[in-house]
Amino acid sequence: MLSSNDNYLLTRTGPETRMGDMLRQYWIPALLAEELPHPDCPPVRVKLLGEELIAFRDTNGKLGIVDEFCPHRKVSLFFGRNEDCGVRCAYHGWKFDTEGNCVDLPSEPPESKFKDKVKIKSYPCEERGGVIWAYMGPTESKPELPEQEWMLVSDSQRHLSRKIQESNFFQALEGGIDSSHVSILHSGSVGGLGVSKNSNSTSLLAKDTAPRFEVADTDYGLLIGARREADEDNFYWRITQFLMPFYSMIPPFAGAPRGGHAWVPIDDENCWVWSWSWTPDRDLTEEEIKQMKSGAGIHPTLIPGTFRTKGNKENDFLIDREMQKRGESFAGIFGVGMEDHAVQVSAGPIVDRSQEKLGTSDTAIIKARQCLLKAVRALENGEKLPALDPSSHRIRSASVLLPKGVPFQEGAKEALELSEKDFEAV
Q: Which helix (H) or strand (E) holds 236?
């Protein structure tokens, strides 16, 4: 279990919090690029790490993420006009560029120099992989954007989604790196994805519901191996990558697209769940995209015009007890991602980890907590943080059969690496 003090440290991410300061050292996925489709399109609200912001694409196509509220009378710039290289407040016309500079004050005399003294908070942002990224940390510490494989393939090889989840980011992240629950929670839903046509993974998952975990520290986070009995000579390894500060790569099923997540704090009690699916060497098929949009896998179905899921805590995630009885979903909830969403939210917005009873299958969870807490303290001591080097993200997860006695890091080494040849190909 975790102490109350460390649990508090892990889960508070707002301005001037220790965890928040650490997370701000990294680039953060903020919006889908399609949310700002063209120059001078309407601004979009986005809340990150407890900060209420708006994003806009100016007349020249430059991206800006700035404080949502005009410094004049603190009204929301969401209602402003995005025009002529700036967003203009609808109340008195104060106008700000992508860097937060006040460029026009029509309510002041023409000779006034007051606008030169007015500036609002702004954050650097860049676009890559269909995502608009924000950097909220010190300017002098800004790293390069990460280089995960899904970010570098063509649009036709990638499907993205994001949703709001009503829980602290870390309990969602813990679910993403917990491979033991796959044999239980997802026992019905994974088979329904059709992966069993190309893989015997579902039968192997069902055969051994108590995997043995081995977790290795890396220079980017953790390498998490979940070992299951396959046959007399082999183990079935599902190997998850955890990349600091909030990414995971899901062990793939043969023939199916790869998948991954990011869990980004909205505030202390809510998070953005980003999901991406991609194929390294081909376009996604129409059937695969249709399935992703159906909500059966890791991608959600949303209430139109929002990032809120159709199944949510107010309607008990549309639980279907008959489907549960039939075994189509162990929890009676449609969709692999929504099964995770529901159980994580059911624990409350912030879990009291001092009350937990952890077992051997929770090894990866314990190590991830230690990893984040260590990074917080490393920042405070002026030490280097993990996963800031973009090249450290050039990795893959893996699902492999290995002879008993072969260490998974060695046996799966080739499957876990994104080689220079692969990297050049994408």
A: strand 234-243
| Other beta carbons within 10 Å of 392 | 17
Q: In what order do the strands lie in the sheet with 44-48?
A: 44-48, 51-57, 63-67, 122-123
Assigned token pair, 35: 């949310």
Q: At a CB cut-off of 8 Å and minimum separation 6, what does 419 contact?
A: none
Nearest one of 32, 11, 301, 291 to 172, comparing CA atoms: 11
Partnered with residue 123 across adjacent β-strands are: 65
pLDDT digits (tens, 9 = 90+) for 215-233: 999 999 999 998 888 888 9
CA–CA dist 37, 41 (Å, integer): 7
Write out the two tokens for 346: 């059911």
State pLDDT tens for residues 305-330.
Answer: 999 999 999 999 999 999 999 988 89
List of residues 6+ apart from 317 with CB closer than 8 A: 309, 311, 333, 338, 341, 342
* Cα three-residue angle 336-221-3, rounded to 5 degrees: 85
Q: Which residue, chain included where needed, has tokens 């290795």?
A: 216
H-assigned helices in 285-385: 286-294, 321-326, 336-346, 363-380
Q: What pTM was estimated for this model as a whole?
A: 0.92
With the CA atoms of 414, 366, 271 and 258 taken in that order, what torsion angle do they form, in degrees rounded to the nearest 10?
20
Q: Which amino acid is at 336?
A: V
Alpha-carbon distance 179 to 409, whole Å?
Answer: 17
Distance of alpha carbon 297 from alpha carbon 58, whole angstroms: 36
Model confidence band, residue 196 (pLDDT cutoffs 50, 70, 90): very low
User: Residue 347 carries which DSSP code?
Assistant: T
Two tokens at 31?
Answer: 């919006």
Residue 317 and residue 146: Cα distance in Å, rounded?
34
* Kind of pairing between the strands at 270-278 and 158-165: antiparallel
DSSP class of 76:
B
Q: Please give the Cα distance from 39 to 100 (Å, whole number).
A: 17
